[in-house]
Amino acid sequence: MSDRVRYRDFYDLFLLTEALLINLNEVVSYVGRKEIRKPITKTNILHNWMVVGTQKTKEMSQIYYSRKIDDAQIQNMIDNLPLTEIFFQKPAN
């Protein structure tokens, strides 16, 4: 969501966090251990969410969605993500 502009990324994360007991604080703590090419920021995520709004109808016609989710629900999920910025953390030797 920070790097790609695809509605399905926002949709999928919303369904996962709704259906499973995912501790987003724990997930965020692990993300920095994954090799990331550029920082993951809430600012980028929010910007991409705004761009997605212009492409959502086209993308939804190409992919099967199990149910409609109100944009306000996804916006609330983004607002509550426990991150501001994540950088790649090189493992200690």
What do you see in this structure?
The chain is mainly alpha-helical and 93 residues long. The protein has one domain (7-86). Helices cover 55% and strands 4% of the residues. The chain is built from 4 helices and 2 strands; from the N terminus they run H-H-E-H-H-E. The protein has helices spanning 7-19, 24-31, 42-62, 71-79, and strands at residues 40-41, 85-86. The protein has a two-stranded antiparallel sheet with strand order 1-2. The chain is globular. The mean pLDDT is 80.
* Strand elements, count: 2
Report how far the terminal alpha carbons are from each other. Answer: 31 Å
SSE arrangement, N to C = HHEHHE
Number of helices in the DSSP assignment: 4
Strand order of the largest sheet: 1-2
Largest sheet data: 2 strands, antiparallel
Low-confidence stretches: none
The count of domains is: 1
Shape: globular
Which short descriptors sum up this protein?
4% strand, 2 strands, two-stranded antiparallel sheet, mainly alpha, 93 residues, single chain
Secondary structure layout:
Layout: H1 7-19, H2 24-31, E1 40-41, H3 42-62, H4 71-79, E2 85-86
Antiparallel strand pairs: 1-2
